[in-house]
UniProtKB/TrEMBL annotation:
The keyword Ion transport does not apply. It holds the Pfam family Sulfatase. The keyword Phosphoprotein does not apply. It is found in: Cell membrane. Its main location: membrane. This is Sulfatase N-terminal domain-containing protein. The chain crosses the membrane at residues 12-30, 52-71, 78-95, 124-143, 155-176. Signal peptide: none annotated.
Length: 609
């Protein structure tokens, strides 16, 4: 009789835990489906039953691990449900701000409380801090009191902890070959690699989240080999005697201007007067001016940096590789970049980002890319801010750059500036804005004021550069649109317009612009190529490969290809173009995943090994 009672109790306990797992899954799906109960019901009990119960199993394993680790079932259940609540809310917040779901990589931000403080409204940030502290204390009390459990329960707890941990470790290898859980999902899942927003809707939040766990950056092309790479190197590489003689190396300044874009480009939005007035004047005097195709809407600065500094394109990676700065570069011992290329030509390189050094592991990444110096927020501690804006003004960044340019003018310098002035939040940023918007939107008014300050600052910067004896080239571009436009505005546009920012390339030596490039759309991977052409610097084999690609494909990201003057959802190429595209793909694989044969053969500059 006693055994039957115990068996019944165990069954009830497991039933409650399973119920909580199902409830957690339903809640996550509810958040994913924009609070639609009908869609949640249809997803879990009609359309995707098999995937739904596989996801329940994964959440059940997480709950068992929590119970085993904390040692108190009640406290573990509270912790588990709180964790699920937080994940669901974070997913909703990100979907509204950036039109993409929560990724495993996003949990990295929990270490960046300063960034979260700037990102979230103050009341929400305080609630988050208090709840984190409360859950920490809950777990701590649970773990401490669990030591007094009888040895039989301790043994059972350890066994459950080992089993659940091993199982979750296997789950974490979801994208590895022959993973049985992935294969179980594959029976019914229709993955959508080109759009994670659609992917999460298609397969559910849990499955979509698992799909974005660690993955090999790129699949190996079928014809990848040392011989193939050697053939590509020989095709694009030129001998030393063909390289131009450098007479005057210009200073090069790459400026990634946070969220710099033209709000008047969007239907249903009017900002007056024009906050980009000073910017347009510089554009008229620039060699190149146009639109930059950004990978993301509302965020993803580090990915645009990656493309601009390396010349590689995010769309060629597996969809699950969402942030190369944190998921790829820290694992590399060597990685070619525009920085290392310029170092081979005698340049000193300086990166300036007036914010937290640990964001996107920038300090580590900049070292890996070859920068000699990195200035962060501590270098601007005495700078006066604009209004209630918590960030360092663009003008201060340009002023610091000018001071450094005047130091030892005989040495050419490369600067990579990543500004913060126009970063969100936009609410209450300025007491009064000089700009009016239709429809009335206080956040947009403050953002427009940011744009005006940025335009004025870069115009003044260009004016000061013209006074220097040494020549200069400035590449100025926005990384993405701000995440402030309401849904009704976003719905009026094809997604292409929500991914276009502004850019120009200005040279103190060139006064006449080239008309062919005044209305173009470019990917950031080409900026450094155009800069080297303009400066008459020696081109590497990789530069010539990019030249060939640029000749017919000036801009592309995942599911979005700009050629022949318009956007296409798919890439349609002739045989010659397809070969160039495959060469580019092979080189990117060789450097990021392969044996780096091309690097050893001097394809990115420097001597052959």
């Amino acid at each position: 009789m006693s055994q039957n009672v115990k068996g019944t109790q165990v069954f009830k306990i497991l039933l409650v835990d399973l119920f909580l797992s199902v409830l957690a899954n339903l809640y996550l799906q509810w958040c994913q489906n924009n609070y639609s109960f009908s869609l949640v019901y249809l997803f879990g009990f009609n359309w995707h039953v098999e995937k739904f119960w596989l996801s329940n199993l994964v959440l059940f394993l997480v709950l068992v691990a929590c119970i085993s680790w904390i040692g108190n079932r009640a406290k573990a259940r509270v912790f588990f449900m709180w964790m699920i609540l937080l994940v669901g809310l974070a997913n909703v917040y990100k979907m509204k701000g950036r039109m993409e779901p929560l990724y495993p990589e996003d949990f990295y931000y929990l270490k960046e409380l300063t960034f979260l403080k700037d990102l979230l409204p103050t009341p929400l940030f305080i609630i988050l801090l208090v709840s984190l502290l409360a859950m920490f204390l809950l777990v701590l009390v649970g773990v401490i009191t669990s030591f007094s459990l009888p040895w039989r329960k301790q043994l059972l707890r350890v066994m459950c902890l080992i089993l659940s941990s091993v199982s979750l470790c296997y789950v974490s290898h979801f994208n590895y070959p022959h993973n049985q859980l992935k294969q179980a999902y594959d029976r019914t899942a229709k993955w959508v690699p080109y759009s994670q927003k659609m992917n999460y809707y298609n397969v559910g939040f849990v499955a979509g989240f698992l799909y974005n766990l660690e993955v090999i950056p790129m699949e190996q092309p079928k014809n990848y080999s040392e011989k193939t790479i050697h053939q590509i190197v020989n095709k694009y590489q030129k001998s030393e005697k063909d390289k131009p003689v450098i007479t005057d190396k210009p200073n090069i300044i790459l400026v990634l201007s946070e969220s710099f874009s033209n709000p008047n480009r969007l239907k249903g939005i009017t900002v007056s007067p024009d906050p980009l007035k000073d910017y347009w004047q510089i554009g008229k005097d620039s060699v190149y001016q146009g639109s930059m195709l950004s990978e993301n809407y509302g965020g993803g600065t580090a990915n645009i940096e990656f493309e601009a500094l390396t010349g590689f394109n995010m769309s060629l990676f597996n969809a699950q590789l969402t942030t190369p700065y944190t998921m790829l570069l820290p694992k590399q011992t060597r990685f070619p970049s525009f920085v290392s290329d310029m170092k081979n030509l005698g340049y000193t390189s300086i990166a300036i980002h007036p914010y937290n050094t640990s964001m996107y592991k920038r300090r580590e990444v900049y070292t890996r890319l070859g920068f000699d110096e990195f200035l962060e927020e501590s270098s601007f501690s005495t700078v006066e801010k604009l209004g209630n804006n918590p960030y360092v003004p663009d003008q201060a960044v340009f002023s610091k750059t000018l001071d450094m340019l005047k130091e030892d003018p005989s040495v050419p310098k490369l600067f990579h500036l990543v500004t913060m002035q126009s970063h969100l939040p936009y609410q209450n940023k300025y007491l009064q804005s000089d700009y009016q918007t239709q429809p009335v939107n206080k956040k947009l008014e403050n953002y427009s004021q940011d744009l005006a300050y940025s335009s004025q600052a870069v115009a003044q910067f260009i004016e000061e550069l013209n006074k220097l004896k040494q020549p200069s080239i400035v590449v100025y571009y926005g990384d993405h649109l701000p995440s402030l436009y309401p849904e009704e505005i976003r719905k009026q546009h094809k997604s292409d317009k929500l991914h276009e920012t502004e850019f120009f390339i200005w040279s103190s030596k060139e006064a006449k612009a080239y008309p062919d490039y005044q209305t173009t759309v470019l990917s950031p991977q080409y900026f450094t190529l155009l800069t080297k052409e303009l400066a008459n610097l020696p081109l590497t084999g990789f530069d010539r490969l990019r030249q060939a690609l640029l000749s017919y494909l000036p801009a592309f990201e995942r599911g979005r290809y700009y050629y022949e003057g318009k956007y296409h959802k798919e890439l349609s190429l002739n045989n010659k173009q397809q070969q160039i595209y495959q060469d580019y793909q092979l080189i990117q694989y060789d450097i990021t995943v392969g044996e780096q044969y091309s690097l050893k053969q001097g394809f990115f500059g420097g001597k052959k090994e």
